[in-house]
Amino acid sequence: MRPLKFKFWDTDYAEMLTEDDYSAEELGVMLSDHERYVPRQYTGIDEDDKEIYEGDIIDFTVFDIEDNDTQYRGVVTFAGGMFQLWKSVESEFYGSDGPFELYWVHLQDDELKVLGNIHENPELLEVEHDTNSAGGPGDHEEKRAAETAL
Fold it and tell me: Which of 37, 58, 109, 144 has the most beta carbons within 10 angstroms of its beta carbon?
């Protein structure tokens, strides 16, 4: 059985609190104040001596017997009574694939990598833009403004 451990994202101070930062009495307050403290439960899985918590962002590979391995990035989410990897905080789907069960990914991927978490590193889940394409999200508005100024 895994130990029951938590980290908390303190929304008032924008900082992560670990077990060393709070007492047993404070734990009860933190678990009940969902507006200020966002709980992050320990999954029971360690990767490269790093504990994996709910809200962590992970790179992983799904291996195929025909060598059609696929690279993914996802956020650890507790849903359906288990820890899963979702494409984003809002969406569990990777195209036609649904969420991946974290324990299954851990067992079949020896290169699982924790990159950060959704509170301190939300940019890790953002879609990367091709530099040879039309540009980033704000570029279209800038081009329209330049065209109307002419």
Answer: 58
CA distance 74 to 57: 6
Q: pTM for the full model?
A: 0.78
CATH code of the domain covering residue 31: 2.30.30.290
Q: 62 is in which domain, residue-wise?
A: 6-149
Tens-digit pLDDT profile for residues 7-29 = 999 999 999 999 999 998 999 99
Q: What tokens appear for 26 in the block?
A: 């404070």
Q: How far is CA 117 from CA 35, 114, 147, in A?
A: 19, 8, 40
Residue 75's identity, in one-letter code, is V
Residue 1 belongs to some domain of the structure? no
Q: How many residues are there in the chain?
A: 150
For the record, the structure tokens of 126 come out as: 């953002």
- Spell out a b/e string for 69-106, using b for 16 or more CB atoms within 10 Å of the CB, else e: eeebbbbbbeeeeebbbbbbeeebebeeeebbebeebb
**Cβ pair 139, 77 in contact under 8 A:** no
Helix (H, G, I), strand (E, B) or coil at 107: helix
> Domain for residue 98, yes or no?
yes
In this structure, the number of other CB atoms found within 10 A of the CB of residue 54 comes to 20
Domain for residue 120, yes or no? yes
The pLDDT tens digits for 107-124 are: 988 778 999 999 999 999
